[in-house]
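FORM 12-B: Structure-to-Sequence Request
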């Protein structure tokens, strides 16, 4: 059953890809034309596609999805470090880019790196031991965990305070493999660092494994309502739509008991 549901959600994800939607619209118009469907219907479909494109590109849909994904975490950047027991900062990888055969952290990864370090620094400033657990393999030759670790060390974090989880390839395995490590550690307060649009799904998946992380958002994205559609609005809207679909998948799998 899980295999079929995985396939279904993979197929649904195509509808959050702009090129697929344009391709689908073109195919529909072509088929309707070949079947001699009346011109009014073809015109209606064409106008609908244009209106949807405008709605996405103008930022209206992005504003709605941005609020749903990020609103509850706006104040999570206020770091609360008092009273934490054996704090562990779990930071999720945000991607790696390859420039001239040199692998570097993606821009989004740097915001997570800085937020995790700021939190770590607050704990250490209060003379409280703290561990940073970096989760992410990525698709490069060097893991996200390794690249994060190198940067943390340059910022002054001792190697003894860093744990690398370098097997996970997605948010589900971030939670799964992080949980396996955390279970071997003393009871801890867990602080989860990731981007705002990604936090709701991340928290849901960590909770699936019985963890109760404190959200620490590293960055936010939003769209701007504009008169004319633009690629900036469209790109971020599709990113957030894909995230909402992922949240639906987590909730359904949890309801069916097939997420572990």
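FORM 12-B RESPONSE
SEQUENCE OUT:
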């Amino acid at each position: 059953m899980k295999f079929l549901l995985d396939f279904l959600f993979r197929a649904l994800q195509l509808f959050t890809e702009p090129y697929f939607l344009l391709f689908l619209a073109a195919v529909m118009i072509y088929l309707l034309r070949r079947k001699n469907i009346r011109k009014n219907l073809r015109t209606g479909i064409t106008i609908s596609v244009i209106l949807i494109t405008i709605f996405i590109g103008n930022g209206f849909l992005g504003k709605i999805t941005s609020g749903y994904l990020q609103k509850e975490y706006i104040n999570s950047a206020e770091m609360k470090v008092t009273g934490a027991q054996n704090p562990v900062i779990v930071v999720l990888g945000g991607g790696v880019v390859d420039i001239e055969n040199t692998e570097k952290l993606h821009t989004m990864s740097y915001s997570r790196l800085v937020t995790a370090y700021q939190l770590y620094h607050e704990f250490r400033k209060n003379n409280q031991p703290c561990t940073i657990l970096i989760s992410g393999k990525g698709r490069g030759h060097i893991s996200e965990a390794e690249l994060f670790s190198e940067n943390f060390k340059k910022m002054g974090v001792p190697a003894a305070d860093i744990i690398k989880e370098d097997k996970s390839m997605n948010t589900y395995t971030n939670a799964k493999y992080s949980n396996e490590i955390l279970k071997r550690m003393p009871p801890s307060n867990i602080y989860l660092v990731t981007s705002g649009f990604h936090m709701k799904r991340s928290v849901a998946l960590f909770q699936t494994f019985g963890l109760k992380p404190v959200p620490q958002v590293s960055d936010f994205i939003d769209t701007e309502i504009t008169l004319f559609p633009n690629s900036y609005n469209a790109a971020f809207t599709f990113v957030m739509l894909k995230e909402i679909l992922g949240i639906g998948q987590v909730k359904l799998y949890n309801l069916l008991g097939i997420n572990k």
